Amino acid sequence: VDKPPVRRVAIFGGTHGNELSGVFLVKHWQENGAEVQRTGMEVKPFLTNPRAVKCTRYIDCDLNRVFDPDNLGRTVVEDIPHEVRRAQEINHIFGSKGSDDAYDLIFDLHNTTSNMGGTLILENSRDDFTIQMFHYIK
User: Fold this and answer.
1) Which residues form the Succinylglutamate desuccinylase/Aspartoacylase catalytic domain (predicted)?
2) What pTM did the predictor assign?
3) Ramachandran quadrant class, 40 (left: phi over 0; alpha: psi -120 to 50; beta: rest)
4) Least confidently predicted of 65-69, 78-82, 119-123, 133-137
5) How far apart are CA 6 and CA 15, in angstroms?
6) Cβ neighbours of residue 117 closer than 8 Å, sequence gap 6 or more
7) CB 85: neighbour CB atoms within 10 A?
8) What is the DSSP letter of 68?
9) CATH number at residue 88
10) DSSP helix/strand/coil, 109
């Protein structure tokens, strides 16, 4: 199957404010973008939940759990949870999944206190490009 080339990549850090490895990397790459930039590709490091980056996992609810159609389509009112509003902003900036304006690839950096070493989680294990990329990273 012919697929268009990957042109736009986002690197997220800080989805959970208490997972600081991604936060530090994203901030570093925002200041030193040449490390992640590649010819013919836009790479955008992005701090996903900066208000939570005070050693707290989230402000109102887990940002990773609100990227669903119901929350993304909610009307913005004053008492909407912070992470729901942030998910809507992120969805607007990086494009709705499957849409023409969506980024081609998003890395969401996390860390844990368990002794599991480096871990990569695939969204789609049938995508040859992603599998090959993960082998390269590994």
Assistant:
1) 6-137
2) 0.87
3) left
4) 119-123
5) 23
6) none
7) 16
8) S
9) 3.40.630.10
10) strand
